[in-house]
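tool=predict chain=A
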Amino acid sequence: MKRLDVLILLLSITVFIIAQPVCQVKHFSVNDGLAQGNVMGMLQDQKGFIWFSTWNGLSKYDGYTFKTYKTSQEDRYAFGSNRMGTISESKYGDIWCPTYDGQACLFDVETEKFIDVLQPLEITTKHSNYVSRILSLKKGIAWIICKNGYTYRADEQLCKRGEGITLYSTFTKNLKGDRIYTVYQDSDEDEWILTNKGVTIVGNKRVDTDFPFQYITQIKENIYLIADKGKLAQYNFQTQKLKFINIPCPHNRITNVTVIGTETLALGTDNGLILYSTPDNTFRQIDIRTSTQPSNYVEQVYQDKQQNIWVFSQSSGIIRILPGSDEKEHLFTPQNEVIRHGRNSRKLIFEDKTGNLWVLPTNGNLSYYDRKEKKLKPLLTDTDNPKSIFSPLVRFYTLDTQGNCWLATARGIDRISFFPQSFQFYQTDYEAETRAFLRDSNNRLWSASKASYIQIYAPDGSLEGYLSPQGNIVKEKQLFYNGVYAIMEDKEKNIWLGTKGAGLFQLTPKGINRYSVTCFKHQPNNPYSISDNSIYSIFQDSHNRIWIGCYGGGLNLLIRRNDQTPIFIHSNNELKNYPTDYGMKVRNITEAPGGVLMVGTTNGLLTFSNKFELPEEVKFYRNCHQPGDKNSLSTNDITHIYTDKRKTTYVISFTGGISKIISGQLLSEQIRFKNYDQSNGLASDLTLSMTEDTHNHLWIVSEIALSRFNPGNETFENYTLGSTYQQQFNFSEALPVINARKQIVLGTDKGFLEISPDKMRKSTYVPPIVFTGFKIQGHPADHPIDNLKELELKASQRNVTFQFAALDYVNPDNILYAYRLQGLEDEWNEVDNNRSASYINLPAGQYQLQIKSTNSDGVWTDNIRTLSIHVLPTFWETYWAWLLYFILFILFTATIVYVLFYIYRLRHQVDMEQQLANVKLRFFTDISHELRTPLTLIGSPVAEVLENEPLSPTAREHLTLVRRNTERMLRLMNQILDFRKIQNQKMKLLVENTDLIPLLQKVMDSFLLIAKEKEIDYRMQSATKSVFGWIDRDKFEKIFFNLLSNAFKYTPNGKAITVKVTPHKDTIDIEVADEGIGIATEKLRTLFQRFETLVKENILQPSSGIGLSLVKEMVEIHHGSIKVDSQPGVGSRFTVTLPLQKQAFEKDTQAEFILNDAQSSSPTATDEDTKGTDAKETYDNNTTDCHSILVVEDNKELRTFLKNSLSGDYTVITASNGEEGLQSAIDNLPDLIISDVMMPVMDGLEMVKHIKENNSICHIPIIILSAKASLDDRIAGLEQGIDDYITKPFSATYLKTRIVTLLRQRKSLQEMYMAQLTESKNAIISGNLTPSQPQITPFDEQFMQKVMEFMEQQMDNSELTIDAFAEHLMMSRTIFYRKLKSIIGLTPVDFIREIRIKRAVQLIDSGEYNFSQIAYMTGFSDPKYFSKCFKKVMGVTPSEYKEKKDTSQS
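tool=predict ok
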């Protein structure tokens, strides 16, 4: 029973139409930054800030934050309290805020400081004042009214400096009364002061009256003065006379005066309302009493824009009076609905910007006036809850320039913002989503919800009734079947309803509001029943076919048999081509221009033509999202397909925005789309549906917003629910329709909306932009910049941050900002809702900071705020600094030019000296070359005579002297030639590991005879007898020969010359010290320069001047150093430091390493290690194609050195004596042999002899390395048939080069020999080889003759094998293979093929045989294989070769 009672209660609920004004209420309290909850006054200043006076200071609000101003003990003016009273604004934007303790406080907005205006005067007069009121006039004058008859007139600009203040009082006789009612400024800017004893005018006018007028107003050029005792007077500007006007209406007291219209005074009295028409001087009294309102006492009067007069009386409520008629009504809040507070609210009445009238009646709630129903209706904060009445206690209120109403409540502030009434909300079913609409042929609106109700509305919007299960439209609320998701009316006016789970319903008209109901459901046993019971879309195409989209059953076509029985065609019967894999969940069906039906599914878009005879003929095309293709469908889940009046089709997809079809061909799987999403300005990517209004604007529905799309310029205008409608609902997937009143009907989760597109407009409000803060170097500035026209920044203030705000109080979080600094940048910086602009290290100069914003609706407005900025330069950025820079630049340039010129002169001088030195050196070099031949002709005969002829002792002595001086002269010329080589960087270092002590002793021995003759103590000092190091022996000898020669040259008889050797770890120091004449200090610096001599010190022993210079050069190319210590008269010491390690020369490109037979002290590999290595390096022609070299050397270190040097490019085989070498040559058949001569067991020459006598290996080139360097030894080696004879020590580079040359010559010989062999069938090796080529030995010649003879015999033998060839020549297969390849460079197989192809060429040239005959004659068993081999060798096929031959002959 309880459930039944609830159901009956739900059914009795009628549709609730919500039509209260659209507004937004926001509360501010101390938690939001307000200084204190008790607000005593509020105003909006000239810039747009909202100011609030509280019990704890003054608060300024910019739409985002509150900024509170209070006095402190440090301020110049000490106030007893921060509790402020009613505030007002001066002409200059300052705020008058009298304090609770009666001080005249003026807040200077420029300095943000409080000023006690009367303090200087009080100090002077020693009189304290208690301020009761401050009245500010538009002309910039404020009247400060104090107790005890003191009144001060203050200039609002001068009073901040303590000036421009005048006392007005009765005792100063410039004021008539001691009690001031009001001060008024007329149009001539004269000031009227109404007192209890008459009127005082400050200005040009004069009035002589002592009547205590309390009210004053101006109409045109007349001033009207009213007293509460019922007196009315008129002052005319022309006559300058005051005239009393009699009021003929009975009354005792006038309570208020209001100007109605432009020329009517409304006098509120204790006996009704009196209207005085000033042009015709007539009065009309209106009794405001009604049957529900007994009071005739008028407290306040207001006239709205529709000329209604609203009157507040002493009774509850408010009275509306229509002038010109007797119509009046008393409107009030029912007592049971009144929200009561601890005190009475201030009376409130105003019209908002949308034209709605708002009233807070006496003893009532805040309400709006419904002009249609002529009722006061409360404002509900929750439209779903009738008890959520908004009616705060109102202390004060004000309206800002944007139309917002600000209410000072019991605690805090309420702001009410108003919006146009652009929609009407129908709450049909609580928490039930509206899912489908239909505008039928009678212009009625059908609405279906998930709550299973179907409502039908008349064209005017009134509810006609509900659809009952029997098909009748009834007034009582009745449930239909399961939630209807699709409604369609066909051309026969049948209504089709698609439900979720309950199947398809057909409503056939049977009369007015009566239909017969037919249900179609899926029947598993009937293949022609509908495919599924959940139906999301129903559509009738241009051929009147009805298509049903099932969510789970795919597409259905409804057709009727001959007996009119409906059947459903789908993929389970005749619709065979339907894509069941991805088309079973259908959301929407429509028809595009050209007769193309489009089906939106959850997995893509399907298209097909409506031009078909049989369902089996239908061909479907699928389009879906293609990753990476921006012109494919945005997403696959399609919710709606819409074609506008321009015949443009749009596809609306879930989370994919909208996709406009830009392809002309829709029957394709490559349809191209243009996609729009949030990045293009759309409110949301989660789009649900689309429709078009009467102005051809497209409206896109998303979950919480509407977007108006202009197809012309492709722009979006978005309307969000949060800022536009203030209703808590979401839009549903119901497809929108246009009702009979041209409104867009949209489904929501609580009912539906009817939107008037004409009224959907963005706000045009242009918010002013103000500067709210300023930071320098990261710290807040001590002064505001909003009032500045130009901001001047010092050089130390170049890091700045500007804070700003657009004063739009409706929804400031939606405001977007942009700024730029002209002079530094031209493009705008769009910063969303960020309200600051920062610049770092601004250059000096003039700038314009520009800031612009949108309003709270996101519309960019023309509100650019500009601030000029002047960044002062540092001294270094001024013109004086630039002048200084220019002067310094000129001086610097002059200095550089002078230095360059000086360097040029020095370089020219050095070049001249260098050229002179080169001339000297070239001269000496040429002379040296010329003298070498005469010296040779002198030296050789002298040596021959000394060695072979018998001579007398005197003659032998003389000839010995000749030979010694000849050798000395030759040595000097060699020095000059060496110096020339060093100068041209052509001096090579031939370094080898040498024992330095014996070599040094050898050099010293050359001077023993001179030492004896001069009786010089000549000796060597060395702690060791042997020191090995890597040096060039020749240059080492020259270094110390020169040093010792100089020592003996400049050392007197009887002195000493010592050579001291001091070895270190990696270097060695060798000192040559003498006790000679020494060297002057000034000479030491140039001692090693070229042509520098000490000829002045020893004129009897002249010098060439290049000896020490040559020594220094040779030491340095050894990577060593030389230094000298000398004292005149004591002697000199030359110290040479040389490296010992081989690593010092490894990166030197001029160094070359030499290795000889001498045994090294370094450890070498053992015989076993060498044998193991040799075994591993045996040549194998089957595994490598590189050349093989046999090294035969008995010295293990030299053998290892050669192997390491050559193994990078060749396969190296080693042997330790001639016998091993001979056997290795026979076994491995190397490409080249390198051999020593003097070896145990069998020497090198004997091994060479055996090799050349061996028919198998006689062709191998041989290089001899030997320490035997005599001519006879060289001749003996060449007689044995070797290819080169290299003496030790030898150059590794020379050896490698010689190997490459021999192998290259060998290759050339092979090619030449092969060419000679194939010249004719009897080809032989000719003897006309060039002298530079190595000669073919007779054994090789005999071998090749045998090979060619056998080849001629076996030319047509296709079964010829390599083994038969080797057996005929009495060789093993391996030896034959290597022998043949080493002589002609071809393997036996390649050789046979080459000879046969050459013979084939000869036979083709003869022209006597065909190709098959030639193939068999040359040993090919298959003509095709013959043709393949022929093309491989000759590059063309036999037929192509013959054609070319015939063409050339013709």
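The CA atoms of residues 550 and 1162 lie 97 Å apart. Residues 1-17, 1095-1102, 1157-1184, 1320-1336 have pLDDT under 50 and may be disordered.
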